[in-house]
Amino acid sequence: MDPAQLLEAATDFAYHPGAHSDASAQDFLNRFPLPAIINALQTKADYPGLESALVDCLEKLFKTRYGASLIPHYMPFAIVGLGAESQKVRHLACQTVSCLLENIDEAIVIPLIHEYGVYQLLLNCLISGDAEVAASSTDAIRKLASHSKGIDIIFPESGNEATNLVNFATNCSPLGRVRVLALIVKLFSISTSVASRVYSSNLLSLLETEISNSNDTLVTLSSLELLYELADVQHSTEFLSRTKLLQILTSIISDASAESILRSRAMMITGRLMARENAFVFIDESGCRNLISAITGRFDLLESQNADECECALEALGQIGLCSKGAALLLSGAQPAGRHVIYAAFDQQQHGKQLAALHDLANIVGETRAEKDVLLDGDAEQNLRRLIYEAASKTSKLTPSGLLLSVLQQDSEIRKAGYRVITGLVMRPWCLMEVISRREIIDIVIDAFKETEKIGMEARHKCCQSIYKVFTSSSKLIADNALSGIATKLEEAINRGPYLGRKLSEAQPAVMTEQRF
To answer: Could you tell me which InterPro entries the record lists for this protein (predicted)?
Structure first.
């Protein structure tokens, strides 16, 4: 077969815009049979541009149903490809396995994976391939694990030593171990049942080992990044709470000698893990308090030393405060952890720190929670009110209304965060009275021209709705003549919607003719 002709046809097929139909794939293979293409890939790869064109062509070909149906008949080619020296060919072979798993019936594909030892070869690609090969092999293994019988290949009951991920990772280079950990995270995220197999196979102990490794900061940081990704999985807390990872995170956060970036990532992971309500089902209260205490213990040391780490600590507390149980925990005790967030939210000395703290305070006071979960139990509400008034007394504003007004008078980013804080806080009667007692606050909130960006407009409108809803639920306030105009103004602002700045909008010419006469 003429390599020049094949190169031209493969290039046209590979770079055809959009997906190919089965008819298109069949027509191409009628002109260039698959055995001939494979032979050219093996024997004429040194022809300029041919290997790359054929790899791209076959990748598109196997993504069609017709192309995928041919893969079981050419498994030896895929097996050779998984062990090829060319990284492009190895990537193609991994992609081919993915297409096989996606398009062919499980009753056919699983015996093929067993017969040809595909899983072992995919693991080898994961460890020894380049970044693209490692990513495609991970994707293929993830798809294998998504099959009900495929998961038994990855976690066999007999415990195959050659494919045991713990043993496999132990004998790898640091880069190889990080790739195995990334695979574990992908497997864990598939479902609760697969996560259970990951936990039962003791694979989370690999994360414990790497995160505890104080000899290689880069490996530790990479492992923390993977744990951060893992913490975002809905069922993560259920399994991570059974490991030593929470204690390890507490130790890292408390370790003054650790790299600042490691402490910051550990705090962010903690916040993500405890952001969901079910976290407090699986993590006992003492464990939660230890993590929060480790974070708050950094503030005295961070105030003037490391602004980035301080913002991470604030954000972690804000994440914990997303759910009502977390918010209540932050606002409980004689010295509530939430005080750091409240004080920072109204401190105008550091813009980034104040912005982070305002968003975190909005989380804690319930701006994102369902209405029934906004108000907190026990002493939390009393402490919140006390801390807000305490923060006001330490400034020239003296009152919470003065603090809130000063926030709304700052730049647009601070103002957006301020709307969120008021939206949550105003659900408390004492804060509602503070807000409506300052006409300047109401004037800013109802000002349709105040915000020019979509997020700011929506935040301002939501704030209007929140104030109006609480205000009109009180018959006493509605009957107060001194406040009678507020409800009307708020209602008009709400009815205009978040984006309509003018009551009557008319098209205006961008360029007008000069008035000569």
So the answer is: ARM-like (IPR011989), ARM-type_fold (IPR016024), PSMD5 (IPR019538)
Contact 244, 233 (CB under 8 A): no
Sign, CA torsion 403/409/415/419? positive
Q: Are 75 and 111 in contact (CB under 8 A)?
A: no
Q: How many other C-beta atoms are found inside a 10 Å radius of the C-beta of residue 414? A: 18
378/235 Cα distance (integer angstroms): 29
User: For residues 467 and 451, what is the distance between their CA atoms, to the nearest angstrom?
Assistant: 18
Predicted pLDDT of residue 160: 58
Q: What is the pLDDT of residue 459?
A: 93
pLDDT score recorded for residue 512: 64
Q: How far apart are the first and last CA of the chain?
A: 80
Ranges of the chain whose pLDDT falls below 50: 304, 504
How far apart are alpha carbons 348 and 344 in whole angstroms? Answer: 8
Q: What does the alpha-carbon distance between residue 358 and residue 170 come to, in Å, rounded to a whole number?
A: 45
Query: Considering the entire predicted model, what is its pTM?
Result: 0.83
Q: Compute the distance between CA of residue 19 and CA of residue 105 in angstroms, rounded to an integer.
A: 22
Q: Are 267 and 231 in contact (CB under 8 A)?
A: no
How far is 127 from 86, CA to CA, in rounded Å?
15
